[in-house]
Amino acid sequence: MTDSFSPGSYLAPAVDWLNVHLHGLFSAISQGVEALLAMVQSVLLLPHPYLFIAIVVAAAAIWINRKVALFALCMLAFCLCAGLWVASIQTIALVCVAVLISVSIAFPLGVIAARVKRVDEIILPILNIMQTVPPWVYLIPAVMLFSLGRVPAIIATIVYGIPPMLRLTSLAFRQLPRDLLELGQASGASPRDILFKIELPTAAPTLLVGLNQCILMSLAMVVLAGLVGAGGLGAEVTRGLSRMEMGLGLRAGLAIVAIALLLDRLPRGALQRHSAGRAMAV
């Protein structure tokens, strides 16, 4: 006796229909994401590793402080000494592209949700569901629609990184002091000036938390996406586990930790330096 209901019997034709009728759309998205990722990765791999490290350390020393610069030197030097420089740069490129697209989608939606109650009521349950779904589940539809490789990994990472940034952006703009907004309106400032000179600087600490969460969650997904051929350190961890090469797995895992700490510390230090500069100017 066969089951009267089988989800797979309905899901498979739907996926086939999407692949046939929307092949052009998926192909365009795939080519665009692949081109952006290839450009970022080629730029990061263009300088010699020593020169790349020197540039990052010098930028951190000038725009943040010497402690962060020394920290960046140690993290990048570890990735180089571990023999995982190319894989580390590939992972950084994957995270940068995913975070860039995630923030580009989540930030405007968060601002709209903070200002339009109906939009917030629609988005909130969707975010709750998205943040309770296990991360590897996002890879399944991405692989179904975009096959294996870096593109489905990026798509899944983008979707996984949107909820924290969107939620915290909405929270940041809802918690803005009303007196500051009223003061800006009373002084005759345009909506654009209010946004860039009052709202964004005031909401910056909460937005930074959202950015950090987006970066770290994207990094976690990118590492997991090594299972579908995304490359980078995730592939090295997968290779080490599948071949029982514990040394490779350990080095790749520690390199992931180093990159996570680096990507967390650099933007946070830059914003703290910027906020301190603004406070002294006032």
From TrEMBL:
Keyword Membrane in annotation:
yes
**For this UniProt entry, what is the primary localization, expressed as one broad class?**
membrane
Q: How does it sit in the membrane?
A: Multi-pass membrane protein
The protein's GO terms of the molecular function aspect are: amine transmembrane transporter activity; carnitine transmembrane transporter activity
SUPFAM superfamilies from the entry?
A: MetI-like
What keywords appear on the UniProt entry? Cell membrane, Membrane, Transmembrane, Transmembrane helix, Transport
Quote the Pfam families the UniProt record gives. BPD_transp_1
* Gene Ontology cellular component list: ATP-binding cassette (ABC) transporter complex
Keyword set includes Transmembrane helix: yes
Q: Domain ABC transmembrane type-1 spans what residues? A: 88-267
Q: Which domain of life is it from?
A: Bacteria
Localization, UniProt: Cell membrane
GO aspect biological process, one term: glycine betaine transport
Q: Which residues cross the membrane?
A: 35-61, 68-86, 92-116, 136-162, 215-234
Belongs to which family? Belongs to the binding-protein-dependent transport system permease family.
Q: Which PANTHER family match?
A: GLYCINE BETAINE/PROLINE BETAINE TRANSPORT SYSTEM PERMEASE PROTEIN PROW (PTHR47737), GLYCINE BETAINE_PROLINE BETAINE TRANSPORT SYSTEM PERMEASE PROTEIN PROW (PTHR47737:SF1)
Protein name as it appears in the record: ABC transporter permease subunit
**What is the source species?**
Pseudomonas vanderleydeniana
